[in-house]
Write a structure and sequence with these properties.
Two copies of one chain form a homodimer. Chain A is an alpha/beta fold. Chain A has helices spanning about 5-10, 30-35, 40-45, 50-60, 75-80, 100-105, 110-115, 120-130, 145-150, 160-170, 170-195, 210-230, 245-250, 265-275, 290-305, 325-340, and strands at about 65-70, 85, 90-95, 135-140, 200-205, 235-240, 255-260, 280-285, 310-315. Chain A has a single domain, classed as Alpha-Beta Barrel (TIM Barrel). In chain A, the strands form two sheets. Chain A has a seven-stranded parallel sheet with strand order 1-4-5-6-7-8-9. Chain A is globular. At the A-B interface, helix 10, helix 12 and helix 15 of A face helix 10, helix 12 and helix 14 of B.
Chain lengths: ~350, ~350
């Protein structure tokens, strides 16, 4: 039996637009906070039962159309021997950043099952507990975005060191990206084998690149991952945050569906990709600070801009931690109500 | 007699591509730091002689093709009665943010000469001291970007309060934008009357809007400013940071030249605007962390992507405070050397 979300992502006809929300298992939910009060962020990632538990919460509370596994894009960096800690308030820190070709040699060989096996384990628990109610989504960070974290050692804004490494030693930087692409492909494959019905590659920082550098450093390694991982029945979503300047670059990247941030209209994306490409997105997460009527109006706008093409509704980036749960629930309800296709 | 930069901005033929650099008078220059050690940021803005002095520094040190007046986009907010302070390290703070239609009523009537007269005064000093060597550029923040600061009370990342105000009370938010457009038009006109040969409107945050909201809230008020200020012989530059998703929106905005950030290629911009629209930009500021050969290569790439159309070279955003001065000088030299047009 098909799932609404998988059908939409594969471009098949569906009775209404499915919806999920990036970071739907997260801090804005009191039920998530309750679990997190008992263990650290990284402990939660590494506890399959608890990770599955928080992944289920938004399915029960919001009625979203999938359960994305709770995890973090940085775990393969830890799996490759880097020292990863999550400092409350400061975000992730890697105390031993990779800043030269020699540093790349410090990364240890990676095996998803051996080094991050708790993630496919969590997917297996989640699939079992869901019993087919909604599909499970797996994910990973894209090679360029992981390289930004590996080089900066923390979340960045300008990525000065990353770009200095990239421009001064392109081959050394490509060696890093190649190692990351191998790891990411292995990790996504392990998630599919554990039962993920769709996977998403998050390229959070690639939109910040000049297009020439996007073509040279971000895209080829994402394409390599897509090529290794993609299966006909498991949709592959490539999400580039800040995608507007790279629309032509992404043509032919091999992804089943493109994730689109909110800074460009879906109508503009369709003007390049046509009416049959599956698109995911793209409501500005800040819309959820607005009152319910405004949220409904903006949902209607996004649906109108998509103009009936294959579509999975989502925010254009992750839900913010101080958003009222009632507003998120209202969003889900609006999408379900406003997107019903008339029969005939 | 014409100036190279003004000619290029007006689309006239020039022997080489002119260059200036956003934030060229600023913290990366030891000579600027020496002045700033004697007075605060806002005191410097308000001292016409000293503001003119730091505006001149990059002309002497780097050989750029204009002197942009040293100032700050937030001064009209202070001029309209808001309490503006610059906290070292934290950036600007406005302790009495505008968060409702009632708050908009708190803004006092604005007159550029009375409330920010030190800025046209500084331009007069600068024009006199330059004696025609290079033209003087004036500037202001665009209404939407100023509204972000007025509402958030500080520099933002997500602009949650701004968007909540915008979506919950569009008419109230438009009232704020209208007040800001009037002030900005008045301030730019005063700068032209004091001797500015070109003006730039900085819309630093408008690229973050969904296109529908860009069309509803950012664009019309920028267009109003352009309409009120533009003169045939004084180029008007509209710079939207993160412009890639709004290229079609900007067609017909009335600006003489568009400022382009680095996240989209000038070739892509020209595919919409054609070969005759003057464009300004668009090297990634982080390129200046790279070694000299890489800087030269990237300059050549930007020139090639522009493909010979009317062009003023610039970074795609402001120069960063920890960039080596020698790299900035090298950038200026590369542009001057690589962009010379063959005669014949």
């Amino acid at each position: 039996m098909g799932h609404l979300l998988i059908d939409a992502a594969l471009g098949r006809p569906v009775p209404r637009t499915p919806i999920w929300i990036m970071r739907q298992a997260g801090r804005y939910l009191p039920e998530y906070q309750a679990v997190r009060s008992q263990l650290s962020f990284l402990e939660l990632c590494k506890s399959p039962d608890r990770a599955a538990e928080v992944s289920l919460q938004p399915v029960d509370i919001l009625g979203v159309d999938d359960a994305i596994i709770f995890s973090d894009i940085l775990i393969p960096l830890e799996g490759m021997g880097m020292n990863l800690v999550f400092d409350e308030g400061k975000g992730p820190l890697l105390s031993d950043p990779i800043r030269s070709r020699a540093d790349v040699g410090r990364l240890t060989p990676y095996d998803a099952i051996r080094d991050n096996g708790y993630l496919p384990d969590a997917i297996r628990v989640l699939v079992r507990e869901l019993g087919g109610r909604v599909p499970v989504i797996g994910f990973a960070g894209a090679p360029y975005t992981l390289a930004c974290y590996a080089v900066e050692g923390k979340t960045g804004k300008q990525f000065a060191r990353t770009k200095a490494f990239m421009l001064s030693d392109p081959e050394g930087f490509r060696a890093l990206l190649g190692r990351l692409a191998d790891a990411v492909a292995d990790l996504l494959t392990a998630q599919i084998e554990a039962g993920a019905s769709m996977v998403q590659l998050f390229d959070t920082w690639a939109g910040d690149l000049a297009p020439e550098q996007f073509r040279a450093f971000a895209l080829p390694f994402a394409v390599e991952v897509i090529r290794k991982v993609r299966r006909p029945d498991v949709p592959f979503v490539y999400f580039v945050n800040g995608v507007a300047g790279k629309l032509h670059e992404l043509q032919g990247c091999g992804a089943t569906m493109l994730g689109i941030d909110w800074r460009i209209g879906l109508d503009e994306v369709r003007s390049v990709y046509g009416p049959t490409m599956p698109l995911q997105g793209n409501l500005d997460p800040c819309t959820l600070y607005a009152p319910p009527e405004a949220i409904e109006e903006q949902v209607a706008r996004v649906l109108a801009e998509n103009a009936g093409g294959p579509h999975v509704f989502n925010l254009g980036h992750g839900v913010l931690p101080d958003i009222p749960v009632a507003h998120v629930k209202h969003l889900v309800d609006c999408v379900k109500r406003l997107s019903v296709r008339g029969d005939s």
